[in-house]
Specification:
Blueprint lengths: L1 H68 L6 H44 L3 H65 L1
Helix pairs in contact: 1-2, 1-3, 2-3
């Protein structure tokens, strides 16, 4: 009789453990789905950012071409500063793009590994893997926040650069107008 009670208790505890493991597996699957959705949103956001970056790069290139055409009217030192700043911002954009690609690759690899690992292993291994997955998700969220912050910083740099270029163009235009006025005065 007492042995039957022990067997019943063992059965109940195993049943609870199985239910807990099933819930853990559901949680892991849910986390994986959330991770995939997050990765998709990141991909979409990256595509939007890449379009904006390319637009900014095109605008910077166009402005650089205009500046180059009127460069002889301005001091060489000023032009070198502007050109150096543009190169620095383009390098920063490239680094952010590479970092984003690296993070997305890592997330994809981790999601695939988690899905493969969910199918096999003991309950204890599943519990450890769940804890590791949760820690990994937290780390990835931190990395994603850093990448988003870096993108915002680079976007601000691009806006600042565009403003500097605009001011530089205005200065060049004023110089050119002054030179034309002086030239006309000399002719008269």
């Amino acid at each position: 009789m007492e042995e039957q009670k022990e067997d019943q208790l063992d059965y109940e505890s195993e049943k609870v453990e199985i239910l807990r493991l099933a819930q853990s597996k559901k949680n892991i699957n849910s986390l994986n789905m959330d991770l995939e959705r997050d990765m998709q949103r990141i991909d979409e956001a990256n595509q939007d950012l890449l379009v904006k970056i390319h637009e900014k790069e095109d605008e910077i290139q166009r402005l650089e071409n205009e500046i180059t055409q009127t460069r002889d009217l301005a001091e060489d030192e000023e032009w070198e500063k502007e050109n150096s700043a543009t190169m620095e911002r383009e390098r920063a954009l490239q680094e952010v793009e590479e970092e984003t690609a690296r993070l997305l690759t890592r997330k994809s690899q981790k999601a695939t590994k988690c899905e493969q690992d969910n199918v096999k292993g003991t309950p204890e291994e599943s519990k450890v893997k769940l804890q590791q997955l949760e820690a990994s998700c937290a780390d990835q969220e931190k990395e994603l926040a850093k990448v988003i912050e870096d993108y915002a910083f680079v976007a601000q740099l691009c806006e600042d650069q565009a403003l500097c270029i605009k001011k530089y163009q205005e200065t060049l235009k004023k110089i050119q107008e002054e030179l034309e006025t002086r030239f006309l005065e000399r002719e008269v």
